[in-house]
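A student in our group prepared the protein record below, which I am reviewing. What it holds is a sequence and that sequence's fold in token form. My question to you is simply how this chain folds and whether the tokens agree. Do not assume that whoever made the record got everything right. I have pasted the whole thing underneath without changing anything:
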Amino acid sequence: MRKPRWWAELSLIGVVYAAYTGGRLLVRGDEASAVDHGLAILRLEGLLGIDAERPLNRLFTDVPALGIPADFAYATLHYLVTPAVLVWLFRRRPAHYRAARAWLMAATLLGLVGFTLLPTCPPRLLDAAHGFTDTMAHFSAYGWWGGEASAPRGLGGMTNQYAAMPSLHVGWALWCGVMLWRYGRTPLLRALGVAYPLLTTVVVMGTANHYLLDAVAGAAVMGAGYLLAPHALRAVDRLRGTTEGTAGGTAGTGEAPPVVSGGCETSAGEHIPGQRSAATATDDTSAAAR
């Protein structure tokens, strides 16, 4: 397998991320349907007894020592840890890099499908009567973000704030955790592989950016991406093989050269198939006479 070139990988990842970001902006749902979907998720969680967002959000709001670090984690780790794990795989685990990158990209594009089909209002944007506080707006004086998601002040219009379902914060964190657990060679890396997705799940709920079911959907999207990635890689390999075979002509077909003898065999004493030397013929005649 040819080793990936860093500049080609960087370009590919940049193009996919730009397409993903642009797609998020283009598929913004209307506010009314997004709010309806958010409330429907809350009702379902209430019926299942898993609506953990409110107590976590109250805790993060009432205790700045928890809320402020959580806001920083939400605004930064998503964009720092994932690229760092990709670079680590590229440099330290190149044999596993291509499959891991394909998994991440497939799941990310599936997440975009989720944003398109189910625009969802996050808890922080629901009416205050539902009991949620936007901790990033509440503690905005401590960070670079404003009152509009985790974007820098003045750039809130560049985000799709109704893209809560699924949570790719959780999905990407789960991918990072699996990579660290599977390919990390130290107990610390493996422990981080377990802790990071769990911490991210608590952070996205405590900051009122996602529901618990958003986190579950993020994990499901990563599972689907894992199943689809091998098929995508095989399709790319077939396309690449076809292209290279066409360019290389018969040199790329792997066919064996033709047999010059046409299948005839020669033995010791034969110069041409079926033609013996005089000495060999005399010896055979003598042997027969004896």
